[in-house]
Amino acid sequence: MDFTSTGFDPGPSFSNSKVAKGIYGIHGGYNWQVTPNWVLGAEGDYDWTTLGRTNAGPLTFLGAPFGIANAQESDATHWIASARARVGYAWGQFMPYATGGAAWSKRDFSGFVQANGVGPNAIVSYSDSKTVTGWVAGVGLEYQPIPHVVLRAEYLHYGFSNGDTITGHPAGAPTFPIIATYNKAGVDVARAGVSYLFGGR
Asked: Where are the domains of the chain?
């Protein structure tokens, strides 16, 4: 994420921000056992989360802090969805599998820039929200302890390359726009789940 203000130094920039949060959701799909051991499938899921982080830093002019001028930004993810293909190898009660496909996510962007002063006119706030697209790939292991019930452990990596660019104008200074640029985001998910089979593998 980068801030730029015309006439001043670029920045601050916040990169490689990491945060850990819980995730929960639902999934469904269909499997085809094409040989005695190989299984092909299609699956979709929808997950809710409170994934997000906030960063703050000073604004500078000619490399030096510009008084009390500073910026703060937040990036929040509320849900993640995917549509994926699967290929697995049935081995007794176990089935390791690989999966991949398209992904979508709802991202909320917000923040403010405080100019070198105090009072409401010294703060420029902004916010935006959009659904971004990307890809997902991962691996997992299923275990069927009893008929029609399947337990799974799964790791997925999501890549979202399209962020957002938001422009704000300080009061009384329309020629000095504040530009906040949000870059790509990656999400790593490790999760466990349970499925009900309408039929047998």
From this structure: 2-8+31-196
